[in-house]
Amino acid sequence: MTDRKLTAIIVDDEPLALEGLRIRLEKTEDVEVIAEAQDGDSAIQACQKLSPDVLFLDLQMPGLNGLEVVQALQSDTLPFIVFVSAYSDYAVDAFELNAIDYILKPVNLGRLQKTIERLKERFTPQSNEQEKHKLLQALGQTSGVAIAELEEWLSSDEPMPTAFPQELVIKNSDNERVFVSIDDIRWIDAAGDYMCVHADTETHIIRITMKKLTEQLDQRVFQRIHKSTLVNVNYIKGIQPLKNNESMLDLGKDIKLKVSRNYSDAVQAILGTKVNLKS
Hints:
Rossmann fold, alpha/beta, 34% helix, CATH 2.40.50.1020, 9 helices, five-stranded antiparallel sheet, 279 residues
């Protein structure tokens, strides 16, 4: 369990109900009430200013009701929500908004303590580690990066790692190895068993098949637009429709590449996945 007190804002339009809830929370010794509000607008302002751990919220209030307050607060900083109401009619709606609990008035201290125990479990290091592990597993499945590498990344300021190489190793005419940054490659086209890798300043020749090279590259970045051509979508400046369901890509620097009609759907994929456009 967490050693610190949970910070809370309590909201009720009835002063006596507000006082009663505050007194009972203070008796638990696990919750610190940092603000009180008697209407929805004030509750929203207090949450945005103080970022509490939990919001104890009445449902029926003048102006915005409790459900509308939660909907207005939907964000990454939304506190845990506990609804407090004299009516059970809204319980289903409340839990659809991912409320932690729904307490009926008058609030019983024993019932309130069970709610607080539930809240404390959400703040335990074990719970946080479980959530972190689930996040890393999901990232690992979508990115192909090992969980151990993702764990190291979480504690750094580095960009998220990728399972794909960041450089191509190419032998030049002097049989020397040249490292070409993936980010510098504008497009790649095939010439028999060789691939022409067109980078910012020069073209490199590599002996490899299109199929094998494609497997090494992030397909979210390198899109096939012809049976023998791959393009780095981050260099695309524009797309011009042509006849016969073909298109022309503008890569800047007077470079234009035709999209084969057999790959016309790739144009839409390009528009949907293109990220980090280079200027």
